[in-house]
């Protein structure tokens, strides 16, 4: 086919200019076309405002200059050229579809380019590391190892780390399913789950973060009062055994004061909290390095840390120094300080505790080192009730009767009853910092890449640290010391600190500052989270907490956070607050995993995460009791909103228009195959068809046709509903289906039909006029239209393409249908191995290299993997072939009109003679009864009349044909044909071997006189291609970059 265009590959271009040496063919006698006027807006149908058009200042005249895109010019106001929008599409900060709060924040988007962007290491990895490693590691992990043993402790840590790893995998899938909003984890989860679940998750996340602040503050006070300054206590024990109650009161007083102080810091100078984050992180890292250094040193030079045992019971060394009952002096023996604790006097003859009398005092090394073999002793659990003695197995002990003074004696006792589930609840908060990176999503250079990578690496790192610490603690530290929660056997020193090198103070000071910093960060993040929930308006009575200071600081939310945090501090026990915190975070993580599971199982078109390594089992569950199913269906239909769905939830709900033959069999069964490949059993599918006639006459044929359609649907595995209409005409029946198919809010939004291959044949029942009117109907109904050309060449469900391409020719912006459809097709086994290519057309003035970069960036944000190519169509003169093709088209149209006109004139003349004959007999018929007028008019012809009529018709025919051959084509038709010819040539040169070609479908002309020309334009546009899908958008956005 002779075409006249120039294709310049982008890679071969560097200057963006046109090829001046392009061949040009001047059509003989082609007059200069008139200057184009600005077209009237579309087809008069209102369309949804495209969010991609924000702040796009493009002159309408620039669209219509030249002849290259004349085929699409009537709809340029609603479907603008891709080349004019790509730079806006690629810049996702201008894309506000799906996130209302970003539409209102214009200023922040303008400042976005100036803000420094953080990478994976600084922005995600280190914050997660700092939040995961914290108070439990320093204050409770050794005790957990001592009570549960190495094996069960390993199981506890592995369970919790697996839980957070699975949650991080789900969160990574959600985070990479579109541009992550600047609101962090809450926005990411709530926008994926919807407002109902989103509000519940937000509250769980908020309460968990608030109680985390209380836990960190309690940990800070415990370190201060127990290991740094024990003499700073305000309340003292008034009676024997009252130390625990006095300690709780001290924790409440100091915790409340610390909370108030931290709240003031957050209220006044939150920026300083962020600046000190690296200092707090350095404390954590140095402390962990000190632990590993101490373990290595203990292997060849274990520290001398004696532990005093009385029989097999561990003694607290807070009140004595030397672990002996009596010492030898010059005149004999003298009692020790330990003697005075167990006896009623310091004399050797004093009355002593029976167990003290019957058992010997021995000393063992508290930290014998990694080479000591103590690991085997610490393998098994040693759960005990509250108030039980911390005993060492294997040491001889003489049992005695019930002791009443055990609480007053210097024994190390268990303070709470321990169990496996309790230890899980206490430990779990130490792995709950996995969302620290996603909370900084607005500051990340590439959140879709950084959040999964940084979070998972942080979990792997911290899991290794925790698991290795369990093994190392069990291998280096004596069991009774591990079970000594507050280090009483070590003279009140922190157990993990005694293992560290070079000094215990490295751990004490490091843990103090790290827990203090974590508390500040919790008090900083929780109010902002509550403010975000309140501003969403999901929970009405929380809306007051959406207000704050003029600079946006959440004052009221901070006040509520402090009050809730105070309730945790009044509990005053780290071991009691930690399980509460665990429950809130477990619920939050449950909903994150649920969001990922639901999106995966439903296969929503918007679910396109870049992170592919998440796995959820797909199950087909039974239907259950039919009555319950019916009620559930009714309830769901009533809940389905009648308005248009959100862009994130849009999927093609397809009405498939089938043609039937005279035997009521489906003409193109491959149309149903293509439907099942496109839908994969998800969403709504309505298979519709029209029988011509009346229902009373055709009801038996209608039942047979419906049965044939259902059988074909079952064979093609098309899950949907069949709807057959009997109508007086095919045109009306199709219009009725487009208007009324579906039920309530469960209606189709897309029409799929086959191209009328025999549209040029006059006897074809599905004529071109029906087709064009159907296109107009879908446009008026704001429904998308898919037209499959050469549908019988499309693959069946059993076929598998081993390769090839699905080529998308994106000429004008259609709401994203051209991007979404090939993605959905590639989910099916037939098309799975096909690669997607996207072509777009650049005009002379476009920067094709920049267009390609912008399109690649846009596809990256859409999570669609495709090759990109920008094809340049140079402004050439109209070729002779185009001129001749247009002329032939118009001659054919004019001939058809004249034939139709001649037929109509004959009918009108016969009717006129009939009317005159009837009028002449009216008077006579009134006087006498005349026979009725015959149906056919008998015309009397003489020879002269016949010859004259023949010459008249012959002259008229000759003059008409002379007019046909002397006519000149309409210039607008020439320009449209020019567009069709050039585009067809470009598409053939690039996509002739593609498995499927998707093209923008131009709209029909507003002037109905040119409908047959419209069909010719489409025929030329798709000529020579094997499988073509013409796509026409429904006037709304169907794809978004947001999750």
UniProtKB/TrEMBL annotation:
Residues 12-26 have a biased composition (Basic and acidic residues). Residues 124-295, 417-618 form the Amino acid permease/ SLC12A domain. One of its GO terms (molecular function) is potassium:chloride symporter activity. The chain crosses the membrane at residues 118-141, 153-176, 197-218, 253-270, 277-296, 416-436, 456-482, 494-520, 580-602. Residues 1-52, 916-935 are annotated as: Disordered. Keywords: Cell membrane, Chloride, Glycoprotein, Ion transport, Membrane, Phosphoprotein, Potassium, Potassium transport, Symport, Transmembrane, Transmembrane helix, Transport. It holds the Pfam family AA_permease. The keyword DNA damage does not apply. It is a multi-pass membrane protein. GO terms for cellular component: plasma membrane; synapse. It comes from the Eukaryota. It catalyses: K(+)(in) + chloride(in) = K(+)(out) + chloride(out). It is found in: Cell membrane. Belongs to the SLC12A transporter family. K/Cl co-transporter subfamily. This is Solute carrier family 12 member 7. It comes from Callithrix jacchus (White-tufted-ear marmoset). The gene is SLC12A7.
